[in-house]
Design brief:
single chain; seven-stranded antiparallel beta sheet; 270 residues; alpha+beta; 7 strands
Length: 270
Amino acid sequence: MVDECDALLQAVEAAPDDTTLQLVYADWLDERGDPRGELLRCQAARNQLTPADPEYTALLEHEARLRRDHPAVILPWERRLSIARIRALIAHSGPSTDGAVTGPYTPGTCLTEPDVVAWEVARVVVLPEEYKLFLQEIGNGGAMPGSYCDFDIFPLARVRSGPIAAAPFPVTSDRFRKRLRQVRAEGRPTDWVLFPELQPVWEQNDGLPGSVSIGGYPGGDGLLLVTTGELRGSIWCTVCYGIPETDPLDEPLGFLNWFAATLAGFQSGA
């Protein structure tokens, strides 16, 4: 028998864009002192704003604090909601207004947990949790046809990995945040290389240690998933020796939020 909490959660999962339903769920959580209710209210309010609005940034910062304060409660629950949103985005995916993609995203057949574990054992690499969840709940890779190149998430058998995938990722969390603050204050460098120290590392290893190649954008740029270090789970584009995918606060995006934002961006032409 489904209890009231699960029934509300399942209703929200079935209609991830229904703000009214989210606020009903938030009320239920608030009445029980559950911090997820406050997070839902922040997200609902932020969805009515543009990223240029100062209140948008304030809400995003508050959401980040809630995650830091209540990780055990919020993070697994958010992943479940992210999976539901991705399913809805895939169901409505199609050609983008700018012509970058020309058809819907088609996921592969889902893997089982033993499938993923066998890959990890064979390559001595532990994949980030969100990526593994995607492989098991959404599909083993997938593609969206593009006018130049496809938007491609490789099936696990095609994910390029080697001994360097288990090596330390060369950018620390502290270096990441200091550098992005500097770029925000001074502007992007003319050569667009955000982390100059990555150039010799890339050239020596033909890639970045502590990462695996998981796909590519319609423009042809590759995608890396960080597998080690403080930035484990973040997504980087291969252009200019590595550029991280970030949110409006310049925080690194995990796989599920990045994938959802990418599909939503194709739909809106952003």
